[in-house]
Amino acid sequence: MELIHPDNWIVMYFGLIFLITCAQMLVVYVLSDVGNHSPGLGLYAVYFMAALLGWIAFALQQGSAIPMVIDIPSVASILNSYILFMAAGQRAGFTRGRVALGMICLVACLSVFFLRPREMFGVQVASAAFFFLATGVLCGWRCWKKDNVGDGIIAVAALMMVLGVASALYMWLARGNFALAQAVTFGSYSSAYVLVAMGFMASMLIEYQQNLSHLATKDPLTQLLNRRGLENALHVTLAEASRSRSPTAAVMTGIDHCKEVNGNFGNDAGDQVIRLVAKCLQRLSRASDVVARTGGDEFLLILPHTDLDGARVLAERIRMDVAQRPLVVNQQRIPVTVSLGVAGAVGEAELDKLSHEASRAMHLAKRGGRNRVASLDSKPILLTTQLSKA
Hints:
Layout: H1 6-32, H2 41-63, H3 72-92, H4 98-110, H5 117-146, H6 149-174, H7 178-217, H8 227-244, E1 247-255, H9 258-265, H10 267-284, E2 290-293, E3 298-304, H11 308-323, E4 327-329, E5 332-334, E6 338-346, H12 351-367, E7 373-378, E8 381-386
Parallel strand pairs: 6-7
Antiparallel strand pairs: 1-3, 1-6, 2-3, 4-5, 7-8
Helix pairs in contact: 1-2, 1-7, 2-3, 3-4, 3-5, 4-5, 5-6, 6-7, 9-10, 10-11
């Protein structure tokens, strides 16, 4: 096999950079069509395009027989590093410090008009290392907070860049080998760019998978668990109740006259009523309780270590709290009430059975006049209804 001529390496190298950039832009284009796309997506797209232009400028500078008046690749490197910092900050939800670091970026870029090439190289690598360090901190924090290894890869890329710059400065300032310092810096930039591209793609794919899992277990209107999420959340809880022979209660909550609200005031008003009841359930339930939306206007609460009497007390508190919070639409007060059914079990408890019995009790409350609590005890069957005062 013949050796590849050195002049062809730059063509192969920038061909690889171009393909990586195109792949990232394709990912950005596909994700931009998603209704709820991730923050920072647009700035990462700008970073990849700006980085490609910077590599092109560097190639032109290396291949040109006439030296450039302005060191465009150095300016592009500083700008790209700052754009990467802004993209990481927007993705992490951290926007403070942008103006101050933007001023540092501007001063570093303008210094190209006043400094000699070697001095500008020092400003370039120091500025890039500073922005990469800030990027690494943000991505490392987001990796820990969101449990997203893709952000961790970007943090590793930032660390590699900082260590590479430190090594390059040592080669230049301590050992006087400027050519080796440039080579180390070039390699650090290249490796960091590839890792950032890999981390970005991994982060987006992981976040997309997390969103799919979230949609599979959460109700989009109220952010409560749906039926599938409820089953997953109770798997361990019900097993523990069976082993310890502890009581478990269920409260089924149904909104009264929800269809009439939709018909008279529109679906938006109906959605507001559903969210109002959902917030009430979350506010009054304990941290150990599990709240889920199981139907259009129905909610199910599972109360571990709670007997039937305790569940009745909670249900009555919920009924009274909802009744005291009417919905105001176009300066018109819409009374909101709920009917609640309570059921309980001791020891082994099945979710389907608890849900069915609580639903029977709730329908009993609705048939009894609504805005009331009904309970059902299966051993023996006992129906009790607490009527609200008119």
